[in-house]
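Repro:
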Amino acid sequence: MPQTNHEEFQFLSCFLGRRARGRELHTSMGRVWDVVASVTELYPQIKGVVLRHGETLAFYPASGADFSEMLKKKRLTVDERKITPLELGPEDVSIRELLWDKQIVDVEGAKVVRVNDIQLLIGERQWIVHVDVGFTGLLRRLGWETPARILAQSLRRPLNDELISWKFVQPVSQHSAVDPIRLTVGARRLAELHPGELADILEDLDHAERQAMVAAMDAETAAEALEETDEDVQKSIFEAMNVERAADILEEMEPSKAADVLANLDESASSEIIRAFEGEEEKAELQELMTYSEDTAGSMMTSNFIEMTQHQTVGEAMAAVREA
């Protein structure tokens, strides 16, 4: 993690809403509405704050001293000459839009949580280091954190923050303009989760968030997770997916389960997906499995098998099963 002198941890809620005044004219510049960060490094570096005046948003390159002033004086004094129209570059994100009150996938804890606050590291440069998904984050935003902590301490049941490091956070959003940078980082960790955990996460998300999360997975990981989800979730995901991507995922699934998915889709959609299959053998297997009625043994069988010779041992056979 980047290190600087005189660093301190503070929460974003301590800065949002602070009044901003001009240094020269002493006129109102609105209030601090958001922060802009660059996601080119492991921890996003804050480039400045967004000022909101009525319906107008503007960018101000706030320094560590500016953040300290907001903490001490509860306001921000700005150099009017440095205020510019708000324009996000290709590697910039609005933290309010990306995370504030948003659902995220915590890939370390394998669960869906809601961001109640965001922890910053304030120093010569500012960084986003944690998200707060706990009850204390809500109390802090309501202004009740201190009395609640005092009460909890008196009852000998201290309140603990629930912080998740940024590197273990997977934002869930359908906004592709900025998210691929984070999704690429998180996709490696998604692949490490058990398919059942991924399926539980998918079922907790809404439709757009499911699409974003599946888009972050490779075809094999997506196939394993979707095999574990219920039929309605499978149907909603595959119906919104492009044909080539759907075919890639289905080719990685167990043939019997892929056949079940296709049978649950509209006939024209399933036909298009089958035509997009790269392997003629896989295509023929699926078409054969789909000819069996739902409640027959044929509909539940798989065309995959393990071939062994009569000279191989039981141990070798078990090793082959485990490998497959």
